[in-house]
């Protein structure tokens, strides 16, 4: 247990599930997370392949392939995976980010072989039937329309494009209508061949593991070549924060009926120790009723209906955001000024001991509550091993425990500086 300056962060929570990690001969990383007494089993396959791996003419390809992974392979025709999952009383899902694509099942503990067979079959190849491709294209086009129609989603994407510039992180994971219409079976098959092989994947199996779990995994998934390349991905570093001002640092949309503010800054890479200090700064500013922005601008002087802070979890560097919805009758410019003044004030006025302890407790409690379920622990382990290194998460919370008030204000001065700030507004039509 680490107890820095009165804060208690019980790092023993990271010892409750002891991982065993191996790499099979074909390059597949395997992580076992046994949990005594568990009656279910969770599998997560995480591929080091996301939208950042797309070519300039492949926008949305990684996410499109995620859909097609459920639409037919040699042993599982279209619809079979979902039908089988339901028949066995299990669940399945998947997600694609800029950095990874991941697929997960949760079954009764005796059904491990079924989950492994599905993953092995679709790793080896997909049917990519023309009618299924066209059907899923329409599904994704509808997803894009939903994002465009949501004021917050549209604003966040517009700000991200401005902040990330020419980096792949600027592109939406879903792609655009134009890029999506240009993708065909050949493009999907090429991306699958390049990235969906053992050498670019990590398998996590968690819960009620059989005693011969590793042998079962090797028998089903241990065959085949590592793939075209098992070398590390290029980091494609983001440009360092650059100063500047003017219209290129502002984004304004006319969407919806409410005035919505998004104040954005570049965020350090997830494996940069300073990223912990930035997250603490955002928590001090806008997490909970005692935070500076919520206390001052929501509770005491209600210029906003609510406020929140967050940092994207991108591997190479992300975006820190402070969001607020203006109260009725409040001038947007006034809310923006007050929010930004609180950000700049934290750089000049470090958090008190009480503020710092509260922020640490909030961040640690959020992690604990989110990871009470073995499924969430399995997904986190898959991301940790695919993108970083074993023990990365524990190391982050050790750094959190050690952080000082000076660390927080210094990070705020550098990473939440007005010189690198982008302000986004989604305003009702007719608002000045």
Q: How do the helices and strands follow one another from N- to C-terminus?
A: EEEHHEEHHHHHEHEEHHEEHHHHHE
Total beta strands: 11
Spatial strand sequence of the major β-sheet: 1-2-6-3-5-4
Q: In terms of structural class, how would the helical and strand content be classed?
A: alpha+beta
Tell me the β content.
15-25%
Number of helices: 15
> Quick one: overall form?
globular
| Helix share bin | 40-55%
Main sheet: strands, sense, barrel: 6 strands, mixed
CA distance, first residue to last residue: 53 Å
Radius of gyration, whole Å? 23 Å
Low-confidence stretches: 1-7
Oligomer: single chain
Mean pLDDT: 92
SSE layout and pairings?
Elements: E1 20-23, E2 29-34, E3 40-47, H1 61-68, H2 80-87, E4 91-96, E5 101-108, H3 112-124, H4 130-149, H5 151-164, H6 177-181, H7 185-195, E6 201-207, H8 213-221, E7 250-254, E8 260-267, H9 274-286, H10 292-300, E9 304-311, E10 318-326, H11 332-348, H12 353-370, H13 374-387, H14 392-402, H15 405-415, E11 422-427
Parallel strand pairs: 2-6, 7-11
Antiparallel strand pairs: 1-2, 3-5, 3-6, 4-5, 8-10, 8-11, 9-10
């Amino acid at each position: 247990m680490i107890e820095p300056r009165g804060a208690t962060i019980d790092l023993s929570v990271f010892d409750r599930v002891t991982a065993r990690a191996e790499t099979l001969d074909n390059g597949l990383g395997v992580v076992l997370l046994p949990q005594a007494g568990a009656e279910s089993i969770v599998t997560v396959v995480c591929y080091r392949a996301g939208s950042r791996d797309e070519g300039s003419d492949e926008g949305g390809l990684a996410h499109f392939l995620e859909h097609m992974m459920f639409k037919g392979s040699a042993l599982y025709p279209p619809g079979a995976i979902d039908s089988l999952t339901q028949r066995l009383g299990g669940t399945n899902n998947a997600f694609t980010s800029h950095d990874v694509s991941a697929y997960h099942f949760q079954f009764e503990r005796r059904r491990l072989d079924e989950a492994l067979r599905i993953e092995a079959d679709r790793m080896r190849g997909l049917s990519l039937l023309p009618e299924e491709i066209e059907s899923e294209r329409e599904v994704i086009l509808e997803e894009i329309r939903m994002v465009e129609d949501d004021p917050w989603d549209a604003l966040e994407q517009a700000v991200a494009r401005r902040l990330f510039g020419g980096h792949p992180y600027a592109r939406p994971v879903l792609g655009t209508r134009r890029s999506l219409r240009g993708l065909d079976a050949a493009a999907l098959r090429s991306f699958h061949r390049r990235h969906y092989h053992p050498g670019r994947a990590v398998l996590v199996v968690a819960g009620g593991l059989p005693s011969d779990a590793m042998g079962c995994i090797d028998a089903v998934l241990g065959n085949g070549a590592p793939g075209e390349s098992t070398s590390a991905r290029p980091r494609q570093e983001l440009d360092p924060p650059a100063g500047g001002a003017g219209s290129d640092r502002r984004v304004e949309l006319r969407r919806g009926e409410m005035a919505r503010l998004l104040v954005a800054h570049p965020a350090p890479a997830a494996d940069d120790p300073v990223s912990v200090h930035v997250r603490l700064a955002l928590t001090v500013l806008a997490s909970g009723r005692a935070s500076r922005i919520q206390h001052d601008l929501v509770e005491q002087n209600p210029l906003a209906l609510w406020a929140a802070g967050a940092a994207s979890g991108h591997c190479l560097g992300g975006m820190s955001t402070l969001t607020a919805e203006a109260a009725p009758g409040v001038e947007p410019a006034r809310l923006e000024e007050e929010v930004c003044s609180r950000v700049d004030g934290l750089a000049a006025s470090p958090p008190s001991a009480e503020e710092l302890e509260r922020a640490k407790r909030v961040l640690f409690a959020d992690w604990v509550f989110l990871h009470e379920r073995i499924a969430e622990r399995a997904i986190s382990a898959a991301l940790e091993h695919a993108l970083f290194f074993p023990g990365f998460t524990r190391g982050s919370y050790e750094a959190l425990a050690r952080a000082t008030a000076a660390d927080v204000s210094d990070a705020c001065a550098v990473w939440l500086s007005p010189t690198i700030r982008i302000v986004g507004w989604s305003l009702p039509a007719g608002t000045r």
